[in-house]
Design a protein that fits this description.
alpha+beta, 4 domains, nine-stranded antiparallel sheet, four-stranded antiparallel sheet, 11 helices, 19 strands, 23% strand
């Protein structure tokens, strides 16, 4: 046993442990473990046991390791064995547990996160981008690759060949915020976006859409606006309560000067443009209404009536076989319409509103073409306008507003057809009406035939000369003698 103890001392010296103080009891325990390993006849086991034992000793005697600084060398001298004093127990180093840092991590804000940007915006390069969902971080624009579109929006709802160019493809998307999104790509191995046409269910243009330093050109084309960027055009138009936004590659569209000449377009500043295209919440007046504010009040009430039919019809899937339930919508209509007119005329049209199609059931508002204030008091307002042949049956329309519970509501509307009261439209009114939906007319003659004033004109969309009666605005065939020689067909 004494020989084994000497060997143990020597081996521990070789392991840089000669200056560690180990009691005789601890050495006895080490030797017993070594004997157990030897009985298994494994030399590796001996040294494994020795190293393990030494490691255990080190853990409980870390305070003694300052010998590495004083005497890092090895020696064959037997280390002195120092027994611990009874009144001085061996010191065990205090283990200080690590304290976890529980401070919450501060998220890194991505300055280029477009999630909160408008649906239409301009990126860092000044290119227009459209998003089809506010949760998307980024939008798409002219020149983006097909793969970028797929990465952002995924597979389209529809994907088909372009009839105009069979070598290119068209994507179509639909979702809760979009009536439709159509993307036309260029041809080639790496298709890129050539044009985008999106019909949004809300206004996608916000003040943040354009950076303050933007210096493009905005043209007011009466029916729509064209915003020219460096390489592309944003085309914006309200249509049937949807908001139509297009992005067009400039190379595929008329340039600014041609547009100015063709449509007598007016240039707008950025602020003027935003003021016109961004919807502002309308607050109806409760007291007296100035004459110039009457058309807006009438438009507000008529729009609310339309919205009742549209929203409830969509909610309950009313159609030809399942027409509107008047009693269901009556409480909503009464918020904006008098009781007699609600239970009279509106009840009657409700029964066929979704059967016959509601076009023409609610009068058109052409106050920008003609408006006449007939009465305007603190309790009653009457204003008239005209409906023009084409989209509507020609007539004079009278709107009456009345007060109920200190608020203005629609008392009634009445149509007088042109057989009873001719509208006697002027050429300025008629041409302005067509310009309001993008068609420029050119008057080439004005004649009187059988006591009726006739306007003879041309349009860019028709190859023949047209004519209308001023009293009714109804189109008639242009007789050859009315047409100047320069416009006659050979």
């Amino acid at each position: 046993m004494e020989k084994q103890l000497k060997n143990l001392n020597k081996d521990m010296n070789q392991l840089l442990l000669k200056n560690i103080k180990v009691s005789s009891e601890e050495k006895d325990r080490i030797l017993q473990g070594i004997q157990a390993k030897k009985r298994r006849k494994s030399p590796i086991g001996y040294y494994a046991a020795l190293v393990a034992a030494a490691a255990i000793i080190c853990l409980f005697t870390l305070s003694q390791l300052d010998f590495l600084k004083k005497d890092p060398g090895m020696s064959d001298d037997d280390p002195p064995i120092v027994e611990p004093q009874e009144d001085e127990p061996a010191e065990v180093p205090e283990v200080v547990p690590e304290v976890e840092d529980n401070e919450p991590e501060v998220p890194v804000v991505d300055e280029k996160d477009y999630t909160t940007s408008p649906t239409l915006y301009m990126d860092e390069s000044g290119a227009f981008k459209l998003k089809t969902w506010r949760d998307f971080k980024q939008g798409i624009g002219i020149g983006d690759s097909m793969q970028e579109v797929l990465d952002i929006y995924g597979e389209p709802n529809e994907r088909f060949e372009n009839d105009v160019n069979p070598d290119s493809e068209i994507f179509k998307y639909h979702n809760q915020m979009l009536d439709s999104l159509t993307i036309i790509f260029t041809e080639g191995e790496e298709p890129k976006i050539e044009s985008i046409n999106a019909f949004y269910k809300y206004n996608p243009i916000e003040p943040l859409s354009f950076p303050a330093e933007w210096n493009g050109t905005i043209l007011d084309l009466v029916s729509n606006f064209n915003v020219y960027g460096e390489m592309e055009i944003l085309f914006f138009q309200k249509q049937d309560k949807l908001y139509n936004v297009k992005l067009l590659d400039k190379s595929n569209h008329q340039d600014e000067e041609e547009m100015k000449v063709a449509y007598d377009a007016t240039e707008l500043t950025l602020q003027e443009y935003l003021d016109r295209v961004i919807d502002k919440e309308y607050v109806p007046p409760t007291g007296e209404v100035a004459d110039e504010d009457v058309p807006a009040l009438v438009a507000y009430l008529v729009e609310k009536i339309n919205k009742v039919y549209d929203d409830k019809g969509e909610e309950l899937n009313w159609d030809y076989d399942d027409p509107a339930d008047f009693e269901y919508i009556r409480p909503e209509l009464r918020k904006y319409v008098s009781q007699p007119f609600t239970d009279g005329h509106l009840k009657e049209i409700s029964n066929r509103f979704f059967r016959d199609g509601h076009g023409g059931m609610i009068p058109a508002l052409n106050f920008d073409i003609r408006k006449t204030i007939i009465e305007n008091t603190n309790s009653k307002i009457i204003i008239s306008t005209i409906e023009i042949a084409g989209m509507d049956a020609p007539s004079t329309v009278y709107f009456t507003l009345v007060k109920e519970d200190d608020r203005w509501i629609l008392g009634s509307w009445e149509r007088i057809d042109v057989e009873k009261t001719p509208i006697n439209i002027t050429w300025e009114e008629y041409s302005a009406y067509h310009a309001s939906w993008g068609e420029k007319l050119t008057l080439i003659n004005e004649v009187t035939h059988d006591g009726e004033k006739i306007y003879v004109f041309t349009t860019p969309t028709a190859s023949y000369v047209q004519a209308i009666e001023a009293s009714t605005s109804i189109p008639i065939e242009a007789q050859e003698e009315w047409i100047p020689e320069d416009y006659r067909e050979d």
